[in-house]
TrEMBL record:
Gene3D superfamilies for this protein: Leucine-rich Repeat Variant, TATA-Binding Protein
Assembly information from the UniProt record: Adaptor protein complexes are heterotetramers composed of two large adaptins (beta-type subunit and alpha-type or delta-type or epsilon-type or gamma-type subunit), a medium adaptin (mu-type subunit) and a small adaptin (sigma-type subunit).
Protein name: Beta-adaptin-like protein
Compartments, as annotated in UniProt: Endomembrane system
InterPro entries to which the protein is assigned, alphabetical: AP_beta (IPR026739), AP_complex_bsu_1_2_4 (IPR016342), ARM-like (IPR011989), ARM-type_fold (IPR016024), B-adaptin_app_sub_C (IPR015151), Clathrin/coatomer_adapt-like_N (IPR002553), TBP_dom_sf (IPR012295)
Residue stretches making up the Beta-adaptin appendage C-terminal subdomain domain: 721-838
GO process terms (BP): intracellular protein transport; vesicle-mediated transport
Organism: Digitaria exilis
Job of this protein: Subunit of clathrin-associated adaptor protein complex that plays a role in protein sorting in the late-Golgi/trans-Golgi network (TGN) and/or endosomes. The AP complexes mediate both the recruitment of clathrin to membranes and the recognition of sorting signals within the cytosolic tails of transmembrane cargo molecules.
One matching Pfam family: B2-adapt-app_C
Domain of life: Eukaryota
Biased composition (Low complexity): 1-21
PANTHER family referenced in this protein's UniProt entry, alphabetically: ADAPTOR COMPLEX SUBUNIT BETA FAMILY MEMBER
Lineage of source species: Eukaryota, Viridiplantae, Streptophyta, Embryophyta, Tracheophyta
Keywords: Membrane, Protein transport, Transport
């Protein structure tokens, strides 16, 4: 049987894809629809436009269909026109030559009878942002500002600001600012007035740098007629526009008190507005206008309490946090005015952690004699919170209240009760606070020590808690019977203690205990100094060496240095200066309040806060190796892709200079405190006598320690390593190696004071390292933090050493990360690198 002959294929519908690529298929369909008068042509054209916009949204380059899209723009369908305008605005800047094709139909649409199409066309025309087409924008904008439709005038006002950014000369020559000002003061539509105000502020602010006339025009915006005209219409504005007008009013300088009261009367009902931004803007106006009127200013605080507290409980957590930040700023300026509303700041179960933390800070600030008991009782309930960070903050809050109150009897009892809770973080936080309390209230030492003495150091895991306990063991060792023996057990486990902070406190505590109870602490002191002198952490080693030589010089002087008569601490340092708080208050109702820092600290690059370094070297545009005798490092301008320094790197820095880290042996200076060169070696503690001590010149410290340790052999010299004097490594290879090689060493070392001072010019360090055959391929940062990438090559081999060096000139410390092709030579190279770094600035 003969096979059935298939019927002829139907012609493809314009809206159906063919076998060609997506863009080519869309172009073909658009050509078929261009000029089509079919009854369903508008529907098909809309479907194809939707597909074009979908491709554009997905990131597909559909600019090839620009001409076809323009041909199909002749339609009366508003939805299709919107999509066409969206497409044209997205591709005009990338294709300025093709953008010229859109001028005719956009200008034609600007004269359409439908005001919606006129406004859309004018907005799209101004959004082309092509300098060559500026001449085609002026006439439609001037016409749009006089259009009978408020929608078109609103678009034209914003378009004038767009034109200024494209060509300031064209905007000024067309006298558009004058038209905007006239429209602002006469237009009946509130949104048109708001857009004119915004455009004028933007244009005149930028123009004021070059024109005195513009500066005078800015002053007219802050004049009484303009401000009162806008404030009288404020109820007609949208919420966004109200905030803009209120920001303008906050900068108005009234001539007398009557004007101040007139403005406050006009804005009184804005405090009950449902929008938090409007309420905060109104509060800013009230606060700034009454700064010079002390009594009225205090009344303003009373008046704004209720609206702010309402906003805290009525909005989303994010809004609550923003309002709480502003409340916190006001509380810090006038805590007494909010002390009666302390219950409003109690934490709710449903509050996010960031809101709870801010509420705890506010409870701390408003605590006084009348409400301390209730606040502390509430805070104690939070100590058992399942949210550990909040539990920690609540304990700290109790301690802060105790430090700022006169009657602390009940608070101290509450803190001591925390020590009975079987939770490590609670015990650690409480010990830190008890230490601070004892520094301010020494009279409470007997009660506190009686409880602290029952705590075993083995049950405390957090370094700061253990350090606080050790401090109390040394400071009050005469009142704690087991103090010498507890310290001795801690010294025996020296190698297991990884925190340098704890080891530093242990050194000092044993010294203090020795001068109070010498017979029982003699052995522990010798073991502590020996362990400290052999410690790989430089701060620990230096302190042990200092104590050793101080004792060797004169024990009486050592006692006065280590254990002097102490006075109670009356005031603890504030973390933020009053000047900084005033600057934040001046920027009320802005991100400065949320960030708790002035705007210049997070906007201007030269005043940015803590630096953050990018670990990914692909963000570094390192340059090629420079010729000989030319510095090979590129000094980058500070921008968002620069290396920005951070005190805590993204890589785990737990191995940095820890007790068990692999570092080269530290060679102490021969005379730390002015002793003669005949001083015995730090680690040779020879037993030549009894355990008693004396201040006579022939005093033998080794006698006192009674260790009987034989003289330690000198450390072996580092392996010989010679570097290639002219290594060659291009930036691309450096990046690839840095990403592939494993981390060989992480260390911390010190710079000389002269070296830290010399880093005011980072190029000097680069030249110094080049003289030691170590090249720099990239550098960045600014005072006091700098970051360098160095490399060197093993002489006679292809092995490279790569170094990331982070230097803090304030502490004169350098953090090193070393990667090497030959891992066995990493330690030798580290010793060579540190040797070169230590000599920087000395020659």
């Amino acid at each position: 049987m003969a096979p059935t002959v298939p019927s002829a294929a139907k012609s493809a519908s314009p809206s159906q894809p063919s076998g060609k690529s997506e863009v080519a298929d869309l172009k073909q369909q658009l050509r078929q629809l261009a000029g089509s008068r079919a009854p369903d042509a508008d529907d098909q054209r809309r479907d194809v436009f939707k597909r074009v916009i979908s491709c554009m949204t997905a990131g597909i380059d559909v600019s090839a269909a620009f001409g076809e899209m323009v041909l199909c723009s002749a339609t009366s369908d508003v939805v299709t026109k919107k999509m066409c305008y969206l497409y044209v605005g997205a591709h005009a800047r990338a294709h300025p030559d093709l953008a010229l094709l859109t001028i005719n139909f956009l200008q034609r649409d600007c004269r359409d009878q439908d005001p919606t199409i006129r406004g859309l066309a004018l907005r799209s025309l101004c959004s082309l942002r092509v300098p060559n087409l500026v001449e085609y924008l002026v006439t439609p904008l001037a016409t749009g500002l006089k259009d009978p439709s408020a929608y078109v005038r609103m678009i034209a006002a914003v378009g004038a600001a767009k034109l200024y950014h494209i060509s300031a000369t064209a905007c000024i020559d067309a006298d558009l600012p004058a038209s905007l000002k006239a429209l602002m003061l006469s237009d009946p539509d509130a949104q048109v007035v708001a857009n004119c105000l915004h455009a004028l502020q933007e244009i005149w602010t930028l123009e004021a740098a070059n024109s005195e006339a513009a500066a005078r025009e800015i002053e007219t915006l802050y004049s009484k007629p303009v401000v009162f005209y806008l404030l009288n219409k404020i109820k007609e504005f949208s919420e966004w526009a109200q905030c803009h007008v209120l920001e303008l009013a906050s900068k108005f300088l009234p001539s007398d008190n009557n004007e101040i009261f007139d403005i406050m009367n006009l804005l009184e009902d804005r405090l009950q507005h449902a929008n938090g931004a409007v309420v905060l803007s109104t509060i800013k106006v009230f606060l700034h206008l009454t700064m010079s009127m002390t009594d009225v200013h205090q009344q303003v605080y009373e008046r704004i309490k209720a609206p702010l507290l309402t906003l805290v409980g009525a909005g989303s957590p994010e809004q609550s946090y923003s309002v709480l930040c502003h409340l916190h700023l006001l509380v810090m300026r006038a805590p007494m005015l909010f002390s009666s509303d302390y219950k409003s700041f109690y934490c709710q179960f449903s509050d996010p952690s960031y809101v709870k933390k801010l509420k705890l800070e506010m409870l701390t600030a408003i605590a006084n004699e009348s409400n301390t008991y209730e606040i502390v009782t509430e805070l104690c309930e939070y100590a058992g919170n399942v949210d550990v960070p909040i539990a920690r903050e609540s304990i700290r809050a109790v301690g802060k209240i105790a430090l700022q109150q006169y009657d602390v009897n009940a608070i101290v009892d509450r803190l001591l009760q925390f020590l009975e809770m079987d939770k490590d973080y609670v015990t650690a936080e409480t010990l830190v606070l008890v230490k601070d309390l004892l520094r301010k209230y020494p009279q409470w030492s007997h009660d506190c020590i009686a409880v602290v003495g029952n705590i075993s150091s083995k049950n405390i895991q957090e370094p700061k808690g253990k350090a606080a306990l050790i401090w109390m063991l040394g400071e009050y060792s005469q009142d704690m019977h087991d103090a010498p023996y507890v310290l001795e057990s801690l010294v025996e486990n020296w190698d297991e203690e990884h925190s340098p902070e704890v080891r530093l406190h242990l050194l000092t505590a044993v010294m203090k205990c020795f001068f109070k109870r010498p017979p029982e602490t003699q052995k522990a002191l010798g073991a502590t100094l020996a362990a400290g002198l052999s410690d790989t952490h430089q701060d620990v080693h230096d302190r042990a060496l200092f104590y050793y030589r101080l004792l060797q010089y004169d024990p009486a002087v050592a006692e006065r240095v280590v254990n002097p008569p102490k006075q109670a601490v009356s005031v603890f340092a504030d973390t933020q200066s009053s000047e900084m708080k005033d600057r934040i208050f001046d920027e009320f109702n802005s991100l400065s309040v949320v960030y708790q820092k002035p705007s210049y600290m997070f906007t201007d690059k030269e005043h940015r806060g803590p630096f953050e370094y990018s670990e990914d070297l692909t963000n570094l545009a390192v340059g090629a190796e420079a010729p000989e005798n030319v510095i090979s490092a590129q000094r980058y301008q500070e921008n968002d892709n620069d290396l920005l320094l951070s005190t805590s790197d993204k890589e785990d820095n737990g191995t940095r200079a820890s007790n068990g880290s692999s570092t080269s042996t530290y060679n102490a200076p021969s005379d730390l405190i002015g002793l003669s060169s005949q001083t015995p070696a730090e680690t040779s503690l020879i037993n030549t006598g009894g355990p008693t001590y004396s201040s006579q010149s022939n005093f033998s410290l080794d006698d006192l320690l009674g260790l009987g340790v034989t003289e330690a052999p000198a450390p072996p010299p580092p392996p010989a390593l010679t570097l290639n004097s002219k290594p060659v490594l291009d930036p691309g290879t450096f990046q690839r190696k840095w990403g592939q090689l494993a981390l060989a060493l992480t260390q911390e070392c010190s710079l000389s004071p002269q070296g830290a001072a010399s880093l005011m010019n980072p190029q000097s360090l680069i030249r110094h390292m080049q003289s030691n055959h170590i090249q720099c391929i990239a550098s960045g940062g600014h005072p006091p933090n700098y970051k360098f990438f160095f490399y060197a090559q093993k002489d006679g081999a292809t092995a490279f050493f790569l170094v990331e060096c982070i230097v803090n000139t304030a502490s004169a410390k350098a953090q090193l990360k070393i990667k090497a092709d030959d891992g066995t030579a990493a330690e030798a190279f580290s010793a060579l690198f540190q040797s070169a770094l230590s000599k920087f600035g000395l020659s």
